[in-house]
Amino acid sequence: MLKKRKSDIDLLYDMADIADDTPPCTGKRPASRQWYRIADIDSDRNVAGFYACPYCVQSLEAIFPVLKGVFHKSRNSHRHSTDERICSLRSDSSRFATYVDLLEDTAAQAVEYRRPPNTYRFVELARSMTQIPGCKRDDMLRDATWHIIPKLPEFTICGECYEDVVWPAVLQGSTLAARVGRKPERVTKGEG
Questions:
Q1: Range 109-118, long-range pairs (CB < 8 A, 24+ positions)
Q2: What is the block-wise mean pLDDT of the chain (192 residues), using blocks of 10 residues?
Q3: What pLDDT was estimated at residue 68?
Q4: Among 25, 35, 147, 181, which residue is least crowded by beta carbons within 10 Å?
């Protein structure tokens, strides 16, 4: 198995134990629980807005054992916390694959070079992702800001979709993508 010669059956047992002992990730539903954080190596401060539930952290640690300890329990959080959060590592997020791919790469490099995991790139990714609100799909939220084409304000694009789809198209020379405003705006009533 990946990164520490863990057999498939051992991984299966580990995942079953996690499922038995740990409440499942609530996905995009906010929950009060013990949260895990990741610290910026340079400042030793937690990445603002990045929270991971025990289920997701333990699952990733089972798959990538070398990452054990990369995520730490929040000092301000406890089992009966009233702070409701959404797990940043949830599998129903469009960001999930990006996070896991980078964690896999981080784990592979740690094993290959026999060093502790270098989380610098993951921290940078998490920091940039938490600055952009997650995509709300087809839900039009009137109190949110949107990227728009000025002459077509009813066509709204959230920040995450702008970063994932529109901006790369702008960089590739798309004239349509270039029409979309770089700065998000509030859409007034009658628009959108």
A1: 110/3, 110/66, 110/67, 111/3, 111/4, 111/66, 117/66, 117/67, 117/70, 118/41
A2: 62 87 91 91 87 96 94 70 83 89 96 94 91 68 79 82 83 90 76 46
A3: 95
A4: 181
Candidates 148, 118, 154; CA nearest to 40 is 118
In three-state secondary structure terms, 136 is coil
Cβ neighbours of residue 107 closer than 8 Å, sequence gap 6 or more: 2, 3, 64, 66, 67, 117
Q: How far apart are CA 14 and CA 131, in angstroms?
A: 33
Task: Supply the pLDDT for residue 107.
Answer: 95
Angle between the 54-63 and 8-21 helix axes, to the nearest 10 degrees?
170
Q: Are strands 84-85 and 31-32 parallel, antiparallel or unpaired?
A: antiparallel
Answer positive or negative: Cα dihedral of 153, 159, 165, 167: positive
pLDDT at site 76: 61
- The residue count of the chain comes to 192
Burial label for 154, CB within 10 Å (0-12, 13-18, 19+), is exposed
User: E strand or H helix at 15, and its extent?
Assistant: helix 8-21
pTM of the full structure: 0.72
